[in-house]
Amino acid sequence: MLVEGKQVGGTYTLNVTLLHLYELLGLLIGLLFGSFLNVCISRLPAHKSIVTPGSHCMACGHAIRWYDNLPVLSWVVLRARCRDCNAPISWRYPAVELAVGLWFSVAAARLYEVRYNLAIDGWVLVPGETVLTFGIAILGFLLIGLMVMDWQTQRLPDAFTLTGVGIGLVLVCVQAFFLAPGEGDIVLNTTNQLRMSSPGSFASQGNVFLTGTEALIMGRIAAIASAALILLAVRWGYKALRKRDGMGLGDVKLLAMIAAFLGFGETLLALFAGVVAASVYGILLMARHRASGASKLPLGSFLAAGGLFSALFGPQVLAWYMEMLR
């Protein structure tokens, strides 16, 4: 077994075993969070408590035994049937648990790769990158839940969207706290060599327009407001033309939540991917005569899927796009 960060001839060897351990740990934690997410999906759209009563069969009301409540495994052992009344258990439950488990596994692998790329030995956390990775894990949890809830009920609860906006802002503030002196500063007219600094930081060369902390936090707030305004403008425009609502405020809050975690560029990518996917789905339904131009689509589900895509591939896709524009 290789030792993590073991230096050999000036390079560092990747400990595949430890990487898999990270992924397995992330998967197990994700399965548990996925089980809790199923409770939220079942109860929040109906404005029910997620604390009481405990897990129970939706058909007969019997409390679910602890050994019948193990993520994925219990569903397989019970053959998707309630032990008490033999009512079918939806495949949604193991699907959500697996989805969150896989998402957390990817986040855990990213956490390991950050430490590997920086050649860090032992259990050491890189503050800024660690906060970013935990943010991606939380965002995936929220988006998977919202995707399923909107698909089933066409509701996007504030308990997820607005709470998500708050969590995203808190994580950005924590990430800004760990910025190195001068990191992320927006400096103008560096040739004049004027010295300006913010409290608690070292002097920076040039005219400092915004410190890194200010730029990160204010930029994220601006991203949230801009993302919300884009969909609000679409909503108002549609209502002015068609004299009826074409989009709920839940979609606006959802896009603002994505912006709170990812920033404006990745949010635009999520919006683009979600709208394209929704359009393709709508065209397919119309081609099969299962929908019309006035049919409602769960746009929030597609926006959530776009958010997941952007969280995974956003930086690479945007970098590729910017390279094409050069």
Structural notes for this entry:
It is a single chain. The protein is mainly α and 326 residues long. The protein has 2 domains: 1-110, no CATH class; 125-326, no CATH class. The chain has 9 helices and 6 strands, in the order ββαααααββββαααα. The chain has helices at 16-43, 73-77, 92-117, 127-153, 158-177, 212-242, 249-262, 264-287, 299-325, and strands at residues 7-8, 11-12, 186-188, 195-196, 204-205, 207-210. The strands form 3 sheets. The chain has a two-stranded antiparallel sheet with strand order 1-2. Strand 1 (7-8) and strand 2 (11-12) form a beta hairpin. Helix 6 runs antiparallel to helix 7 (249-262), helix 7 crosses helix 9 (299-325) and helix 8 (264-287) packs across helix 9 (299-325). The protein is globular, with a radius of gyration of 23 Å. The two termini are 45 Å apart. The model is unreliable at 1-12 and 200-204 (pLDDT under 50).
CA-based gyration radius: 23 Å
Shape: globular
Instruction: State the end-to-end distance.
Output: 45 Å
| Total discrete domains | 2
Strand percent estimate? under 5%
Question: Structural class of the helix and strand makeup?
Answer: mainly alpha
Can you give the helix content as a percent range? Answer: 55-70%
Number of strands: 6
**Largest sheet geometry:** 2 strands, antiparallel
Quick recap of the structure?
The chain contains 9 helices and 6 strands.
Sequence-ordered SSE layout with sheet pairings:
Layout: E1 7-8, E2 11-12, H1 16-43, H2 73-77, H3 92-117, H4 127-153, H5 158-177, E3 186-188, E4 195-196, E5 204-205, E6 207-210, H6 212-242, H7 249-262, H8 264-287, H9 299-325
Antiparallel strand pairs: 1-2, 3-6, 4-5
